[in-house]
Design brief:
Elements: E1 11-14, H1 28-39, E2 47-49, H2 61-75, E3 81-85, H3 90-102, E4 107-110, H4 122-135, E5 140-144, H5 155-164, E6 168-173, H6 178-189, E7 196-199, H7 205-210, E8 215-218, H8 221-236, H9 240-257, H10 265-275, H11 293-305, H12 312-316
Parallel strand pairs: 1-8, 2-3, 3-4, 4-5, 5-6, 6-7, 7-8
Helix pairs in contact: 1-2, 3-4, 4-5, 8-9, 9-11, 10-11
């Protein structure tokens, strides 16, 4: 599968979902259809697999390889593929990185190791990223978690990472505090060797993009990639009126996707695609569980409000 060697992580990058059969095995036919559907949207820069949205924490290494293989077959000739690196240990992360590169990935999204929840030092973060960078020549995207989780990197740590690991080309910024998010955008994209800030603040995407992010990487792109691409273009063009109109359509989906508990966001996105006739079922792997009828009804109403589902769907429910 051809790689895209000149890919720079920026622009609109949806993170796709992973459909399952009722026995929790991967529904490859539905996954292929979903990939083709998302990739058909105009204005995308890449797609992401083996991340939160594909329930990577519940997938084996062999399943991650298969997910990448299918993505390469379906969309790899058209769009670069970003492959998530989810591992608690750096040696395992390097192994996944090598597998991703051999499978045709064009960039790697590096999740923070779970042990960082109980403490980290800059040297630990450097060791993790250097181990991965030594295993591959692909550009890296550092997934910046909220500092309150313990897995987020303080700005001083980020600066060391960028200086000592030149393979890092972007961050996926899950910083929930607007002043900190803005400081990242100004400091990182203004560097002599710029680091692109990709927003993942999909619950307040317009506000985030207006601050100047060079892109977005979001699981909700699995459902609303077209709206996200149009919003990004409008903001880049300085067309605030168009951006606000698009945001009025995005807002209902954000309201239901990112409700509490937050962990169910991709669960809800699967239900949205079922309601839209784009997935046959919304199965998630334990410990996630299927959401209830009342919440599904709220998702249906949000899709109608967003203009993504005909009002007749309410009567048919």
């Amino acid at each position: 599968m051809p790689r895209h060697p000149d890919f720079v992580p920026q622009g609109v990058i949806p993170a796709v979902l992973l459909p399952f059969h009722t026995d929790f095995s991967i529904d490859e036919a539905s996954f292929r259809s979903h990939l083709r559907d998302v990739a058909s949207v105009q204005g995308l820069s890449a797609i992401t697999v083996n991340a939160h949205s594909t329930e990577v924490a519940s997938c084996t290494l062999d399943e991650q390889r298969r997910v990448m293989e299918i993505a390469g077959e379906e969309v790899g000739g058209k769009l670069p593929i970003v492959h998530g690196i989810w591992a608690d240990g750096s040696l395992e992360a390097a192994r996944i990185a090598r597998q991703a590169q051999s499978g045709g990935a064009s960039a790697l999204l590096v999740f923070p190791p779970a042990p960082f929840t109980i403490g980290q030092t800059p040297e630990m973060a450097l060791a993790h990223f250097k181990t991965i960078a030594d295993a591959t020549d692909l550009p890296l995207i550092a997934f910046q978690y909220p500092l309150a989780t313990g897995q987020g990197y303080p700005l001083a740590t980020l600066e060391r990472l960028f200086e000592e690991v030149p393979a890092i080309r972007a961050i996926k910024d899950w910083t929930p505090l607007v002043p900190q998010h803005e400081s990242h955008i100004r400091a990182l994209q203004g560097r002599k060797r710029p680091i692109n800030v990709l927003s993942t603040n999909s619950a307040w995407l317009l506000s985030s993009l207006v601050l100047g992010c060079n892109g977005l990487l979001s699981g909700s792109g699995s459902v609303i990639a077209d709206l996200q691409a149009r919003l990004f273009r409008a903001v880049q063009a300085g067309d605030l009126a168009e951006a606000r109109q698009l945001n009025d359509r995005i807002y209902p989906t954000a309201r239901v996707f990112y409700a509490d508990p937050f962990v169910d966001m991709h669960n809800r996105m699967k239900e949205a695609l079922v309601l839209m006739g784009k997935l046959p079922r919304a199965v998630v792997r334990p410990p996630l569980v299927k959401i209830g009828d009342a919440e599904i009804a709220r998702i249906r109403e949000a899709l109608i409000e967003a203009g993504l589902l005909d009002i007749s769907a309410r009567d048919a429910a």
